[in-house]
Prior knowledge:
- By secondary structure, this protein is of the alpha/beta class.
- It has helices at 2-13, 18-25, 29-36, 44-57, 63-70, 85-102, 121-130, 143-155, 180-194, 211-227, 243-256, 271-279, 298-302, 314-331, 351-361, 386-389, and strands spanning 74-83, 107-116, 135-138, 160-163, 174-178, 199-205, 231-238, 260-265, 287-291, 308-311, 338-341, 344-346.
- The longest helix is centred in the first third of the chain and has 18 residues, at 85-102.
- The protein is elongated.
Amino acid sequence: MRRRKKSEARKRTKPPGIREIAQTLGVSIGTVDRALHDRSGINQATRAKVLELAEALGYRPNLAARFLSSRKQFRVGVNLPREIASFFDLVRDGILDVARSFESNGVRVVYRSDPRLGQGETEALEEALDDGIDGLVIAPGRPEGLAPLMRRAVARGIPVVCVNTDAPGIEHLATVSVDSATSGSLVGELMGRFLGGKGRIVVVTGQLSTVDHLQKLDGFRKEIGEKWPGLGIAAVVEAHDDEAEGYEKCRAVLASTPDVAGVYVSTANSIPVMRALDDRGLSRGITIITTDLFPALAPHIESGRVAATIYQRPWVQGQIAFQAIYKFLVEGVTPPPVNRLSPHVVMRSNLKLFLERMRSDTAEIPGGGRRSEARTVRSGSIATFADEVR
């Protein structure tokens, strides 16, 4: 008797399907299917009744079955810079981690690389649009130059997700990035405390036409202007994420700017800046705060030469960006328009923990793919990253 009651309870709690909707309205299963999937061959009054009842009953379609029956293949273009590899390679790995788990559902990734952020991206995006892709993940270095192509994508119904940096004022599906203004503010507060509220600082960025880079500088300026009036920006170096350019420009600025107390590198292009400081004999007398975390930088943090670095979590950025595209294309779920990750401060005291986590997260796992930083990505819900984007 008890087993029978449990069986009946399961039947009662089983979500309604197409058959139940058809029986309730006294129409065929084919009619319900046409209404739910917006197909022709049904009058508008019947379609409205089906949709109204489906919503009232909490009907949820079997997306996997629908996808497999449609045989639809989605091709997602991923256009990212080759430089700086220590950052964007991890973004790619995060995308790959998610994409591999969805390959069985007919989703394929087409990778294209720009030489560096803001260079060659227009040509790569035009090539992707001509290739018949269904969705795009891009890092817009110069969004004003990409605007016509992004609008063309929207006109064709191709969703575009921006990762790492934004394209404000240009319509696109979503943006996934670290909170850049907060990142700059964090550095301003750290510099203020490390320097006792006094000193001149050199800021080394990529290019101020990139929204992420500009917002970091703005956040830094605002923080020191409001809280640390004794701090000042001696120079802003646009190195365009080019190692040779970063080295030469920093050498020149350090030679012409006396009494530099701090250096803030707001992109992953920090190693050539360290070399320039060495050449000027300043490596031990200046407070240095960098951005991101990679093997070449770790010894400088361990030795105390770099006081702190702001980790932008590129792996998670890639994961969330691709998952947003997947859920939109396959399930029709529209992601939040802006997904901001909280930046992490890495110092000598917690460096080991971050390095261990990164080694674990980038380890190969059986069957292909890599372990994900978020761990929950395979549940297939953007909501599982709620703690990541607050």
